[in-house]
Amino acid sequence: MTPEQRRLLIELCGMMAYAELSAFERMSSDARFSPTLHDRATLGRLAVAEFAHFETVSDYLAQLGADVEVAMVPFQASVDAFHDRTRPADWYESLMKAYVIDAMSGDLFAVLGQSVDSALQDLIGRVQVPPELAGLLQGRLREVLAGDARLSSRLALWGRRLVGEALTQGQRLGRERSFLGALMSSAPEAEPLEPDKLRAHLTRAHSRRMNELGLTA
Amino acid sequence: MTPEQRRLLIELCGMMAYAELSAFERMSSDARFSPTLHDRATLGRLAVAEFAHFETVSDYLAQLGADVEVAMVPFQASVDAFHDRTRPADWYESLMKAYVIDAMSGDLFAVLGQSVDSALQDLIGRVQVPPELAGLLQGRLREVLAGDARLSSRLALWGRRLVGEALTQGQRLGRERSFLGALMSSAPEAEPLEPDKLRAHLTRAHSRRMNELGLTA
After folding, report:
1. Is A73 in the B-facing interface, judged by CB distances under 8 Å?
2. Which of A134, A216, B20, B28 could form a disulfide with B47 if both were Cys (CB 3.0 to 4.6 A apart)?
3. Which whole-number Å values give the CA distances from A185 to A126, A156, A178, A181, in the listed order?
4. Contacts of residue B41 in chain A, CB cutoff 8 Å?
């Protein structure tokens, strides 16, 4: 690994680590507003999975000889700003936020990971939301949406707002920090990833997930 | 196990489960206000340990053929009231709350567990805060208190308030729910546990822990 590759990796992992730690905190605080104790436990379980991912990424940073706290600092402001701008108004919006944002971050990390080394790809595989939890989340959303046209339209709108904010934040980050661009242009395959293509890829995957809920993205 | 013993066990476990689930949610929300990213991760780790305990107790309830949500419901109001009355004003108070209340609940469960069966004693052993985490918490508190007379006096006062509220809440619960008294009087040893003795036992253990921080209880 060249020193430059190592630097890029540390930046990417710093971002992932802070995103996971924040997701853990937000999700577990939101859990308290769940309509049933069963839902509280489910959201808690999801939050705990995020924390486990944070620890996985921290271990990887330690292997790279990097300090996890130092690596996270550059991303604190923008991740916090994202969460402040997308504060769920109730438990349904929390659930949708978990559904939309976890999956989208996973997609983004998967794309960025392609361009770097295989240990990173393995790491990224390990920090995806486990399918059984993702399935549980989707199942619960379907249940609450079923036959509730008002909630469906509110959550469809909320989903669009979440994705809009996430893409805006990603764009800002891309401008401010060189590593996203560098990772994308270091793709080993012939064609480097272009920002527009990445955006289209993420949006498509999001639309598919919204459709799976019976909503229009 | 007699049906009456089983009923008592389910009540005790329902209380433990809800206490753990709430502690998880409160602690992980409080983590966000930590002064450093390192502290956020530490408080997060403690919160995750609480969630693991919640799952351990849930499994035990399932083995007893009881539904964890149903078992928790009777304790929701009083545990929530306790947390509402002891809302930490800042991160230092959160840390102290975790230190005081986790240990005290552990002490209480250990005493109540003596009176029932050995499987329960084993369970109670498994839901104690792991010594390395308790040590970490104590270490961090010592650090922040060292040489800060103002914070020390504020947190000493806060510690007294926490214990006062916890004991009051315990007393109320004892009046409202028969199981605490029943558990205490079913102690296998010659002498049933008396409320006054239990209170003295819990207070003593609390004072010792405060002294370990260099504070007066």
Report:
1. yes
2. B28
3. 24, 34, 11, 6
4. 21, 54, 58, 68-69
The residue whose two tokens read 């990796």 is: A9
- CA quadruple A101, A107, A112, A115: dihedral, nearest 10: 170
Structure tokens at A169: 């934040």
pLDDT tens, position by position, for chain B (217 residues)? 788 888 888 998 999 999 999 999 988 888 888 889 999 998 899 999 999 999 999 999 999 999 999 999 999 999 999 999 999 998 899 999 999 998 898 888 888 777 666 777 788 888 888 888 888 889 999 999 998 999 999 999 999 999 999 998 888 887 777 777 777 666 555 455 677 888 898 999 999 999 999 998 7
* CA gap B9, B74 in Å, rounded: 14
The answer to whether B40 faces chain A, any CB pair under 8 Å, is yes
CB of A150 closer than 8 Å to CB of A85: no
Determine contact, residues A156/A216, Cβ cutoff 8 Å.
yes
Neighbours of B168 (CB within 10 A): 12
Interchain CB contact of B38 with A (< 8 Å): yes
Q: Nearest-CA neighbor of B39 among B88, B95, B87, B103?
A: B95
Residue in B28, B45, B68 nearest the CB of A29: B28
> Would the CB atoms of A51 and B48 count as touching at under 8 Å?
yes
B45 touches chain A (CB under 8 A): yes
Q: C-alpha angle B132/B47/A88, rounded to 5°?
A: 160
Structure tokens at A146: 């079923």
The number of angstroms, rounded, from the C-alpha of B212 to the middle of its chain's C-alpha atoms is: 18
DSSP-assigned letter for residue B147: T
Residue among B41, B198, B32, B42 nearest B113 (CA)? B198
> Does A67 contact B at CB distance below 8 Å?
no
Please compute, for residue A24, the number of CA atoms within 13 A of its CA located in the half-sphere on the CB side.
31
Tokens 């007699």 found at: B2
CB-count burial class (<10 Å; 0-12, 13-18, 19+) for B64 = middle
Q: Do A54 and B31 touch (CB under 8 A)?
A: no
* C-alpha–C-alpha distance, residues A81 and A171, integer Å: 14
| Residue A69 to chain B, least CA–CA distance (Å) | 6
CA-closest candidate to residue A210, choices A163, A169, A172: A163
